[in-house]
Design brief:
single chain; elongated
């Protein structure tokens, strides 16, 4: 509970408009006391919401800026804000921008004069502030819905999401970008809310926004498509334009666009059907995909390996067919390069990918065994990183699992590992204190002998 002085402080804020700036400056000094800070902020939320309705644009701007800061990455405050009607207040604020523009149009204010090459409209001074205010309100609206499915569901039940869909067509790019960011948060939801968005034509909206001339709009649109792709792979592939645009944006000069585009393709290929895999691969192209492993960004290289991992997450016939198309030597050489680097996440994702590729037939397994990959696997069994160690063991177990007969291919495969001295390493690991590691080491020894 707040102390008496702080209670008086809150009461004073209700009656003193000029205190808002000072209030947040003082509250932010409580960062070293997070519990006390959250209690105080929960008390202050009604005060901040009150100023969203102020006649002073300066106070409204300050209030919504404070709200954006508080709502970002703070589920407790998001819920507290939702419980006192903040969603409705923000929605009313967002809707007001259309009414404001109609009044300006009636006053014959010229709006359609572009500033330089950017899609930002020339408004009167008051309208400029109202646009920035509405943009901030949209951002706050998105943040307040980001942490809780229940908040998003209520928004959809009350059909407030339709206002956001409409604002993605707004003439000002700042409003389009902020509205699309709200959609990105909406698409974090389960399929209940996503199904509503799909039925109301969100893919056609996203398709247009993916070609927007304003970078922030494009970034938000790709992010929204990423979140949809995990559940609506078939629907997105029916809209060929969205897939082609994702592929194009993988080559963008902007990191955010490249990263989100590759992430979107990864989601599109996650546990999907062979038909969708083929559809995406035809448009992506094998050389482009492998080329992304040379991107200057490690994050994009990681997502590319994840994308390839999803491509090879299938039964043996598919793995064989896809390896043949990719060119096994080229693929294995590039994966080995990443597996031998000093970046743990690249090493790990390379191992996961190889784990899927080892589901191939004896011909490709033999190709793997005759490369230097087995030697690298054995070296990784000495890693201090238990996840890497376990993943290397998993790949070895996959390789040896079906090589237990007396066929020529099986004998060659076992001999490769035996000649590299793997038995000595496995005998040490079979008594490892990590259960998954000792279990897999014993499995590998069984298959080896």
């Amino acid at each position: 509970m707040l102390s008496i002085p702080m209670s008086k402080y809150v009461s004073a804020l209700h009656n003193c408009n000029t205190s808002l700036n000072l209030s947040m400056a003082n509250i932010n000094k409580f960062d070293k006391f997070p519990i006390e800070r959250e209690h105080i902020l929960c008390w202050l939320l009604p005060v901040i919401i009150k100023y969203l309705k102020s006649e002073s644009i300066t106070l409204r701007m300050r209030a919504v800026t404070v709200l954006v800061t508080l709502m970002e990455n703070n589920p407790k405050l998001q819920k507290a804000a939702a419980n006192i009607g903040t969603v409705t207040e923000l929605h009313n604020t967002i809707m007001a921008i259309e009414n404001f523009e109609k009044k300006e149009e009636e006053s014959k204010v010229k709006k359609l004069k572009y500033i330089q090459d950017m899609d930002l409209l020339q408004f009167s001074e008051d309208s400029k502030q109202e646009i920035i205010f509405a943009q901030s309100a949209l951002i706050a609206f998105g943040y307040i819905t980001s942490g809780y499915e229940s908040i998003r569901k209520k928004i959809f039940e009350e059909e407030k999401h339709k206002t956001i869909l409409e604002l993605t067509k707004h003439p000002d790019a700042r409003i389009r970008a902020a509205a699309c960011s709200c959609l990105l948060f909406f698409c974090r939801s389960n399929k209940f809310t996503k199904n509503i968005l799909i039925s109301e034509g969100i893919l056609m909206i996203i398709q247009k926004l993916l070609y927007d001339v304003y970078l922030d709009v494009e970034i938000a649109a790709v992010g929204t498509l990423c979140n949809l792709a995990i559940d609506f792979q078939a629907e997105i592939c029916e809209n060929d334009i969205c897939v082609k645009r994702l592929v194009e944006l993988c080559q963008s000069k902007y990191f955010d666009l490249r990263y989100k585009a590759v992430f979107g393709l990864k989601n599109l290929l996650f546990k999907t059907t062979p038909d969708i895999r083929k559809f995406v691969l035809v448009r992506l192209g094998i050389d482009k995909l492998i080329g992304l492993l040379d991107d200057e960004s490690v994050e994009i290289q990681v997502q590319t390996l994840c994308t390839m991992r999803n491509i090879f997450h299938e039964k043996q016939d598919w793995v064989n067919e896809t390896l043949t198309k990719f060119g096994p030597d080229k693929v294995l050489e590039k994966i080995k390069e990443k597996m031998c680097c000093s970046i743990p996440e690249l090493v790990l994702q390379s191992l996961y990918l190889l784990g899927n590729i080892t589901n191939a037939n004896d011909k490709f397994k033999l190709a793997i065994s005759l490369s230097s990959i087995p030697k690298e696997w054995i070296q990784l069994l000495e890693s201090k990183n238990n996840v890497i160690k376990r993943s290397a063991l998993s790949s070895i177990v996959n390789m040896l699992r079906k090589a237990i007969d007396d066929s020529s291919a099986s004998k060659k495969l076992r001999k490769v590992f035996q000649d590299l001295g793997i038995e000595e390493v496995l005998n040490k690991l079979k008594i490892d204190i990590v259960p998954n590691i000792s279990k897999k080491a014993n499995q590998a020894l069984t298959y080896l002998t």
